[in-house]
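Here is one chain, start to finish.
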Amino acid sequence: MRCLCSWAMLVAPVVVSAQVSVELTGGLATTWLVGNNPARTPIISRDTAQQALGAGFAGVQPGVAFHVLHPLAPNWRVGLGVEQTYFEGLQRFRLRVVDIYLRYTQTATSVAATVEYIPVRFPLARGYAFVSLEPRWTSISRGHYVYEQVDTRQGRVIDRLDTLISKPPEPVYRFGLVGRVGIGGELAGPWHFRANVGFGVLNLLGRRPERGELLTPVRLGETDEQYAPILVVALLLQYHLRLP
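Its structure:
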């Protein structure tokens, strides 16, 4: 019996240390296209209702993010994640008796590997600051274009076009990179919060000049695919889990 107790005392710390710590993270992730990328320009030119120019993705674009992180050491984490950004461009023209509404949407789905380092820890709420690097593989969906004419006197739709836009070559896959800085801390028990801001490029590798720009609906005078730089901001909840 004494030998059995001694064996249990020796094995117990090994079993505990063999437990895998996993941090499940999810929340909101917004994206801005920055710079002079043509996807930021209006869908239709203001001086003519016939010529498409861009996607209208000039503002903040909503999205969601889910990540699984694993601590390798007290200050190092690695992980995998999935992020979706829902790009939407809206435009409206007012004519004498008709309003014209334009809507163009695309979805970018990214799978990212994460390497994270914690250089600073805070005494309050077990807080910390972190920096991370994310190589990511991104798939771009086909564009969805909606055109509506509304009779302002009767308030009814008199003309509507709803179509998917294919812009070859397809499918559209790109490799990019995002660097982030952020903070995190404990809320209650296993629940934590994380907030970060980052900068990156959607199409660092894999650009196709024959496509034209990455996110515009049509290739109108486009001779190359420019870099698509992005600014990202995320607000996330995190749950700490130990697996046997």
